[in-house]
Amino acid sequence: MTIWWVRRDLRLGDNAALAAAVARGGPVVPLFVVDPALAGGIHAVADKRRAFLWRGLDALDRSLRARGSRLVVRHGAPEVVVPDVAREVGAHEAIAEEDYSPYARRRDAAVSHRLPLELTAGLTVHPPRAVLSSDHRPYLVFSPFRRAWLALGVPTRGQLIDAPHTLAPFPPIASEPIPSAPASLDFPAGEDEAARRLARFAAGVRAPIRRYDETRNRVDQAGTSALSPYLRFGMLSASQAVAAAVEAGADPRDTRGGSGPDVWLSELVWREFYLAVLWHFPSVLRRAFDRSLRHVPWRDSASDLAAWQAGRTGYPIVDAGMRQLAASGWMHNRARMIVASFLTKDLLLDWRLGEAWFMRHLVDGDPAANNGGWQWTAGTGTDAAPYFRVFNPVLQAKKFDPEGAYVRHWVPELVRVPARFVHEPWTMSPLEQHAAGCVIGRDYPAPIVDRAASRARALAAYAASRQRHQTDASP
User: Fold this and answer.
1) Does residue 4 carry a catalytic annotation?
2) Cα–Cα distance between 152 and 166 in angstroms, integer?
């Protein structure tokens, strides 16, 4: 009897932990522990992310029952629950997919003190400890990390682990009901849905992945895979995604010769880079990686933070992104960068405030990717955007939402504003504002910050932190 401890691997296909449990030869007990410790802090569970998880568990349970098994759900601390269930069924060990967050490592260490726990690969293609430089140091820059990662080899479809056809039944054991998921979701949950979406994105010579290099930054188009929630909870494995990218890139029928598959593969490697950064440097969840930027004099403005959170900054592309997040639990990656730059540079508010807000709302909220993205845009991370790069939200909007379709969808106050004004509606004359039904200050807010002044303020603040660091470091 073996416990398969389900965590971030809500799938039966390409599941090394499940395969290892089945290989033991006896019945496998699939166990999911509803851990109360993950309800707060950086792991604060968004309602939509929680609903997505519960529906994913429902889908997993249905798949297990079709194979003669079922999911066992228990609430409580894992270091108590997992050994207790093992004793109930007479299991002598548990097997789980390894996770790399600081909390996950502490949790697994606590469980292993009470019950033998085997951890397998699966969350990443290559574990963080395997992607090291020639002098065995972790990479701090993405490009060499990517080269080293690729040199370790990439999985192909033929190397993926098949889902078991049947599973041996285990003795009767009590299970708590899977919590209900009342929140509405734009993402149907489950392994089957993840497979359908992956095939729709990556399979065939006309698949969106072919033009991913051209369309991925267009917020007004469905040019991305939108698979991040499925990767977050392991309804799709990293290897399955990478294998699809490799297969698409090698398809001889593609005469276009585009770099879409390779660019999407790089995005998957970025995910592994941020997981590696978190594994090697867990303190990034608390502070800037760049020591010289740990003393930026962030402003304290509850009103500016509230305006950003509500999508009421007066900058349409920023407001559209924030409203998309609130309504759907997801945001286009280009929009994520724009709103993050606006918070940290234009408003000069601490990036950790934005990081926490995203974790409260994102269906795909993951500590490593979320932290990595925020520190990249704030300029405080490992391989980060230069601290002096400040995204211009108007220019970004004109480039990536040229007709204003994205903005008008999420900011309906601007639906009648002509395209030439939609990204800077405050430039309309009073007559034009009335004609468009969008009077600035009445129907839609005026910009809450003057960008010329805010950019200068941000550069001065970052320079002050760097100067303080140099002074503190001098003998």
Assistant:
1) no
2) 33
Residue 374 designated active-site: yes
10-60 per-position pLDDT tens digit? 999 999 999 999 999 999 999 999 998 876 544 556 889 999 999 999 999
132 and 103 housed in the same domain = no
pLDDT for 438-470, tens place per residue? 999 999 999 999 999 999 999 999 999 999 988
For the chain, first and last CA: distance in Å? 62
**Catalytic choice (118, 333, 426, 432):** 333
Whether residue 368 sits in one domain with residue 228: no
Q: Reduced to 3 DSSP states, what percent helix, strand and coil does the chain have, rounded to the nearest 5?
A: 50, 5, 40
**Could you give the CA distance from residue 353 to residue 305 in angstroms, rounded to a whole number?**
8
HEC states along 353-415? HHHHHHHHHCCCCCHHHHHHHHHHHHCCCCCCCCCCCCCCHHHHHHHHCCCCHHHHHHCHHHC
Residues 427 and 330 in one domain: yes
Residue 149 annotated as catalytic: no
Q: Which of 4, 149, 351, 376 is catalytic?
A: 351
Q: Tell me whether residue 333 is one of the annotated catalytic residues.
A: yes
User: 3-state DSSP call for residue 205?
Assistant: coil
List, for residues 237-252, the tens digit of each pLDDT value. 999 999 999 999 887 7
Q: How far is CA 158 from the centre of its chain?
A: 27
pLDDT value of position 41? 47
C-alpha 44/C-alpha 251 separation (Å) is 42
Burial code of 1-16, b = ≥16 C-beta within 10 A, e = fewer? bbbbbbbbbbbbbbbb
264 an active-site residue? no
Exactly one of 5, 279, 374, 376 is catalytic; name it: 374
CA dihedral of 281, 283, 286, 287, whole degrees rounded to 10: -70
Q: Which two tokens stand for residue 70?
A: 């079922």
**Which residue among the candidates 88, 93, 267, 432 is catalytic per the annotation?**
267
Query: Are both 31 and 51 inside the same structural domain?
Result: yes
Selection from 182, 189, 200 nearest residue 231 by Cα: 189
CATH, residue 406: 1.10.579.10
In a domain, 105, yes or no: yes
What lies within 8 Å, CB to CB, of 152 at 6+ separation is: 126, 130, 131
C-alpha 19/C-alpha 196 separation (Å) is: 23
Please state the separation of Cα 284 from the chain's center in Å: 16
Residue 270 annotated to the active site: yes
211 and 310 within one domain: no
Identify whether residues 138 and 250 lie together within a single domain. yes
Rg (CA), the chain: 24
Q: Which domain holds residue 267?
A: 124-159+192-280
Q: Look up residue 392 and give its two tokens.
A: 């211009």
